Amino acid sequence: MDLSDSPLLSSTDGKEGDSNGREGNEEQSKIEDCLPNEIPEAENLLIYQRRRSLLGLQEHLTNLSNAKKELRGKAALELKDWKEKGRQAIKDLKQKVKEEVKQYELKEAARTHQREQRERHRTAFDQTSEDLQSKELIGGWVLTPSQMKFLHENPYLYNASAGSYLELLFLQKFWLWLARFIPACVAPSCITVLGLLINVACCITVLYFAVDLKSDAPAWSFVLCAVGVFCYQTLDALDGKQSFKVQNTPIEEIYDHACDAVSTIFVTLSVAVAAGLGHYPYLLYLFFLISLTAFYCTHWSCHVTHTMVFGKIDVSEGQWILILAHTLTAIYGSRIWHSTLVSFLGLEVTLAQGIVLTAIFSLSRSIVDNMQMAVMGRKTPLEEVGIWIPRRKLIFGPLLPLSLLVSLTNFCALPLFWVSPAVFILTFGFCFSKLTMSLVMVNISKGDMDIVDSSLAVPLLLAINSVFPLVSPYTSLLCGLVYAIMDALRFFTYASWDLRVALDCNIFSIKYPPGHPKNRAGDNGFYINGLNTEKVVAQWEKFKENNLSSLYDYFHAD
What we know:
single chain, 3-stranded parallel beta sheet
């Protein structure tokens, strides 16, 4: 019997694809109603079996339909989840692309900036090279072509011996501790100039209240001077420590000693106010003249021996005496210095006179010591420990302008010093400072000192005006002061320009930081501070094995 003829099959034909679960259950119940409760007869057995098979097939089709719906639901959920993940992935990819584009733009901007910076440096270097070549051909503002060439081609060697009692006691350790806190971006010359400005400002403050060097000044002004001297001493020591770390060139030496020369003038005036030295004009004049002469002779001795020598009782001790003097004046007033120190045969010596006479004796002793080292051949402290730095052959050149300046100063002192001691000290002090700057420039560039210096113009004109009066003495002093300051500033500015070009270095910034191939940091000379003698001697022994001939060539370049 064909199953297609069965009414049960025809009732379900074509519904397997889209019938629901409820319709399948109704058909199943109909089939069960058609089935007999008892076993049918033999002829109907085949029909019965086919109906049972049809019932199982219908059940199977129902299960397949349910499974199909479940699969469609799962597929829809998976498709929705996949679309959500796809959208998130696209969003993340877009964000990543944006970040990569931003990073690329930043890197490209950085590379562009580096290229522009290299181009600027290359242009500046080419300009510096052109300037240097032109300067070598025609010389600088104050330096000759040979001096410019020497500075450009030779390393900088600074030889010195320090180690006074106070420095060995605590000052060197204190300065070394402070030097650790100075950033590497700070140029040593900035520290030097800052110390000078502080000291000069404090001295001018006290000088404002006692321009005649006799009157009393407020106590706080002397405290300010004491603080100014301490700050100047500390910063003056720290600039050398900083130069070893970031930039050690002749620029730092000329700035250091030029600031010292100017500071000596104002310190002399401030101590004159504190001690009331205006009441003792002869003593004040002698103290002023000896102080500046001793300062110049120290650099003249360095000119001959190529070694800056400091004594066991030297600048550091003198500065602490000044700090103590200003402090005592602030507490007790200037009258403390006019108390009688000793009286002999009716001659009274006040405390101020005794201290100034002691200072004059000490400064005179320093002049004699420098003469002995420069002329008589006495060993320097470096030579005493076995470090033999070659000396100059021509030694008396710098003494000629000094002799002329001292002679003209003495000639002008009688008519002019009593007019205004403060203006006189400032005028001739700047003349001595400018002459000292010239000597330092000669020392660092291995040149020769000119016999006639521009610093002699002021004393010469003042001497002429004293003999043939054209203007009043006070007016002539003021004019001389203006010219002396302008002359010192002019020379110092021109010297700075020449050094900047010859050395390819900046003055108030670090052009080539530590680590750069052109950086000039480090201690290339031999500097004994009282704490490193063995280290410097070992450095000399190592240097002597390989570079002794070059050292003689270096110092005999003159």
